[in-house]
Amino acid sequence: MFTPFFRADNAETREVPGTGLGLVICKQIVELHGGRLTLKSARGRGTVVRVELPAPAEIAEQSSDAA
Q1: Strand runs (DSSP E) across the chain, as ranges?
Q2: Which of 24, 42, 56, 63 is deepest in the core (most CB within 10 A)?
Q3: Residue 24 lies in a domain
Q4: pTM here?
Q5: Using one digit for the tens of pLDDT, what is the confidence trace for 23-58?
Protein backbone atom coordinates (compact mmCIF):
# COMPACT_ATOMS: atom_id res chain seq x y z
CA MET A 1 0.00 0.00 0.00
CA PHE A 2 2.92 2.33 0.57
CA THR A 3 4.61 1.54 -2.75
CA PRO A 4 4.67 4.49 -5.18
CA PHE A 5 2.26 4.06 -8.11
CA PHE A 6 0.75 0.86 -6.59
CA ARG A 7 -2.86 0.25 -7.50
CA ALA A 8 -4.80 -2.93 -6.87
CA ASP A 9 -5.91 -4.46 -10.14
CA ASN A 10 -9.59 -5.26 -9.96
CA ALA A 11 -12.83 -4.01 -11.50
CA GLU A 12 -13.56 -1.62 -8.61
CA THR A 13 -10.19 0.16 -8.67
CA ARG A 14 -10.05 0.46 -12.46
CA GLU A 15 -13.13 2.70 -12.30
CA VAL A 16 -11.54 5.09 -9.76
CA PRO A 17 -8.96 7.57 -11.09
CA GLY A 18 -5.68 8.03 -9.28
CA THR A 19 -1.93 7.68 -9.48
CA GLY A 20 -1.22 5.55 -6.43
CA LEU A 21 0.81 8.27 -4.73
CA GLY A 22 -1.57 9.59 -2.06
CA LEU A 23 -0.68 7.26 0.82
CA VAL A 24 3.03 7.35 -0.03
CA ILE A 25 3.10 11.16 0.11
CA CYS A 26 1.01 11.28 3.31
CA LYS A 27 3.28 8.75 5.02
CA GLN A 28 6.40 10.73 4.12
CA ILE A 29 4.92 13.99 5.42
CA VAL A 30 3.82 12.36 8.69
CA GLU A 31 7.25 10.76 9.20
CA LEU A 32 9.02 14.07 8.49
CA HIS A 33 7.00 15.49 11.38
CA GLY A 34 8.18 12.68 13.67
CA GLY A 35 4.96 10.72 13.41
CA ARG A 36 3.68 7.43 12.16
CA LEU A 37 1.01 6.43 9.63
CA THR A 38 -0.45 2.93 9.81
CA LEU A 39 -3.22 1.20 7.94
CA LYS A 40 -5.50 -1.77 8.61
CA SER A 41 -7.77 -3.09 5.92
CA ALA A 42 -10.32 -5.89 5.85
CA ARG A 43 -12.04 -6.93 2.65
CA GLY A 44 -15.71 -6.03 2.78
CA ARG A 45 -15.29 -4.10 6.04
CA GLY A 46 -13.20 -1.11 5.00
CA THR A 47 -9.89 0.51 5.84
CA VAL A 48 -8.67 2.41 8.88
CA VAL A 49 -5.81 4.86 8.40
CA ARG A 50 -4.21 6.05 11.63
CA VAL A 51 -1.94 9.10 11.88
CA GLU A 52 0.05 9.58 15.08
CA LEU A 53 1.97 12.82 15.58
CA PRO A 54 4.10 13.75 18.58
CA ALA A 55 2.84 16.47 20.92
CA PRO A 56 4.61 19.84 20.45
CA ALA A 57 6.64 19.40 23.68
CA GLU A 58 7.98 16.08 22.38
CA ILE A 59 9.07 17.74 19.12
CA ALA A 60 10.96 20.43 21.01
CA GLU A 61 12.73 17.78 23.12
CA GLN A 62 13.72 15.80 20.02
CA SER A 63 15.11 18.93 18.35
CA SER A 64 17.21 19.91 21.36
CA ASP A 65 18.48 16.32 21.74
CA ALA A 66 19.61 16.29 18.11
CA ALA A 67 21.52 19.58 18.43
Answers
A1: 36-42, 46-52
A2: 24
A3: yes
A4: 0.58
A5: 889 999 999 999 999 999 888 898 899 999 988 776
